[in-house]
Amino acid sequence: MERFYLDTNIIFSYFLKKFFEKKGKQIETRVVNFLINSSKNIKYAVSILVKAEIIRILKSEFGFEKEDIEKAWKDFISEISPDYITAFQTVEEIYNEIVDIVSTTPIKKRVTNLEHLIIAKKNDLIFVTGDKEIISKCKGFYDKIWSYNRLRKFYAIRNDLKPQKNDNYDQ
Amino acid sequence: MTNDKKVLSKKEREEIEKAWERMADKFWKTLEYWKKHNPKKYRKFWRDYKKLEEAFGS
């Protein structure tokens, strides 16, 4: 059974949806609707790094209180029920792998998404990301990297009851 | 596979809903502030949001 490690952008959309709903505002919420609906059938995972990134954005961009952020995170965990991945590797181990990548592949962006990638790799999770640089350059390092589109297509096929459906869901 | 959802108590649910309301108020005020005083940031917020929606496909 596949387990998916989602990047922070997808997770953050959950929080945005809640804010807009509470204000009675209608916006397109395709991403988070997918996340909520698919979480009933496929397994997601988050790590302390995802939590840290979400909390950083909520605090630095919007100035929310720590207690409110904790409650919102608790609600997210309750609704989506992701596995909470503990990274047992030392910082040294994780960054040694990142050094391997950046010394052989020119990566322009900062290393946060590479940290996610290493956590996904160490836990045998499929890393779902919108980071095109990771998708295009890092598959040689870890082949379980999927685009959002690939996850969406995979889920559509997985939930299709037609037995002869073509399973070529590659991006 | 069906994922088990953690059931929150009534009190926990009420506290969480109040927290969401407080945050939503602050969020909305921040967006309004950006719109008036930091339009570049306001536009970036919506651009990033739309980009994510589009990246997910239809």
Q: What is the topology, as strand order, of the major beta sheet of chain A?
A: 3-2-1-4-5
Helix-residue proportion of chain B = over 70%
Helix and strand content put the structural class of chain A at: alpha/beta
CATH topology of chain A: Rossmann fold
Number of helices of chain A: 8
Order of helices and strands of chain B: HH
Overview of this protein structure:
The complex is a heterodimer of chains A (171) and B (58). Chain A has 171 residues and is of the alpha/beta class. Chain A has one domain (3-158): Rossmann fold. Chain A has helices at 8-22, 30-38, 48-62, 66-80, 91-104, 112-122, 132-137, 148-158; strands at residues 3-6, 43-47, 83-85, 126-128, 145-146. A five-stranded parallel sheet of chain A has the order 3-2-1-4-5. In chain A, strand 4, helix 7 (132-137) and strand 5 form a beta-alpha-beta unit. Chain B is mainly α and 58 residues long. Chain B is 78% helix and 0% strand. Chain B has helices at residues 10-37, 39-55. The A-B interface holds A 1, 9-10, 13, 16, 18-23, 27-28, 30-31, 34, 39-43, 58, 61-65, 67-69, 71-72, 74-75, 77-79, 81, 130, 147-149, 152-153 and B 1-8, 12, 15-16, 19-28, 30, 49, 52-53, 55-58.
What is this entry, summarized?
The complex is a heterodimer of chains A (171) and B (58). With 171 residues, chain A is α/β, with parallel strands linked by helices.
Helix-strand layout with pairing:
The complex is a heterodimer of chains A (171) and B (58).
Chain A (H helix, E strand, L loop, with lengths): L2 E4 L1 H15 L7 H9 L4 E5 H15 L3 H15 L2 E3 L5 H14 L7 H11 L3 E3 L3 H6 L7 E2 L1 H11 L13
Parallel strand pairs in A: 1-2, 1-4, 2-3, 4-5
Helix pairs in contact in A: 1-2, 5-6
Chain B lengths: L9 H28 L1 H17 L3
Features:
heterodimer; A: 171 residues; alpha/beta; Rossmann fold; disordered C terminus; B: 58 residues; mainly alpha; 2 helices; 78% helix; 0% strand; flat
